[in-house]
Specification:
Length: 290
């Protein structure tokens, strides 16, 4: 499956690789085919394109499986750099990567040496033996991919081994070199769910963790800058937290400088399903409805 991946919202451009009845592998572009999550990262000069070992299996689809994606061991995993000036697929620079999978990048930017840096939540495998969702066969960790267009190779470095997903940054550093990143921490007791929020200082190599309490599951942390802020982390994190005891959700605001400090909790009238995504838009950009 080809994922156009990065810190901005999904686009309808995609590619699917599937195994048909002729037992041959096929890669094709199809804007109407449902082939899973996809994003696009836009460093200054290029888009980052992920072509990773999860693909549609036509045999599963024709057999009636509602989610016919699976891991292909023989898939040649690769990451592409697509110049903004490209006019065809031939302009993509493909770089080999060891087999892995990812849904959500934190950020991507051009490095001075010509490489592209992508910080991302990566999985060792996905939809191999268990095809019913993430966190079952492997847990995602925060990693850094360095894409070298000269060597046509991607090197991978683990930033934090702890299980986490839904990475976000401050919008002011989108597609630029960032210092801070924020993620949702995953339960470590074998259950599927979340329990905490992380703040990563990628310059200092440190991380803060805020535990939202027993039975409370946080979602994706959304950064909101303070008016007139000059520091990258000067602002708040907005986190929707589901409370299993009350079956309702709260909107929790954390101090983005010190995320162990909860500054506000707003009770919502109903439950917000775990995993929902959102963005903060100021009234000055989009006025509220009359």
């Amino acid at each position: 499956m080809l994922l156009l991946a990065g810190p901005c919202r999904p686009t309808p451009i995609r590619r699917c690789r599937a195994r048909g009845h002729d037992d041959e592998d096929h890669r094709y572009n199809d804007a109407d085919d449902a082939n899973g999550p996809r994003h696009v990262a836009h460093p200054d000069r290029r888009a980052v394109v992920y072509d990773l070992p999860v693909a549609v299996d036509f045999d599963l689809a024709l057999g009636g499986m509602s989610f016919p994606f699976r891991w292909f061991n023989d898939y040649n995993a690769r990451v592409g750099l697509l110049p903004r000036t490209a006019t065809s697929e031939a302009d993509i620079i493909w770089c080999e990567i060891d087999p892995c999978f990812a849904f959500h990048p934190l950020n991507a930017y051009d490095a001075p040496d010509g490489s592209v840096i992508v910080d991302i939540c990566e999985y060792d495998r996905m939809f191999d033996q268990d095809r019913f969702g993430p966190f079952r066969e492997s847990s995602p960790r925060l990693s850094r991919w360095t894409i070298d267009p000269k060597a046509r190779r991607v090197s991978r470095q683990t930033i934090d081994e702890r299980a986490q997903e839904f990475p976000r940054i401050a919008g002011s550093v989108s597609n630029k070199q960032h210092r801070y990143g924020y993620t949702a921490g995953i339960l470590d007791n074998g259950e599927v769910g979340f329990d905490s929020t992380y703040k990563h200082d990628l310059l200092a190599g440190t991380a803060q963790r805020y535990d939202h309490g027993p039975g409370r599951q946080p979602g994706e942390p959304v950064f909101v800058s303070r008016a007139g802020a000059t520091d990258e982390d000067d602002g708040w994190l907005m986190v929707v937290v589901y409370d299993g005891e009350t079956n309702r959700s709260d909107l929790v605001l954390l101090d983005a400088v010190d995320i162990t400090r909860e500054v506000a909790r707003i009770a919502l009238p109903t439950r917000v399903p775990t995993g929902f995504h959102g963005n903060w838009v100021r009234d000055a950009v989009t006025p509220p409805p009359a």
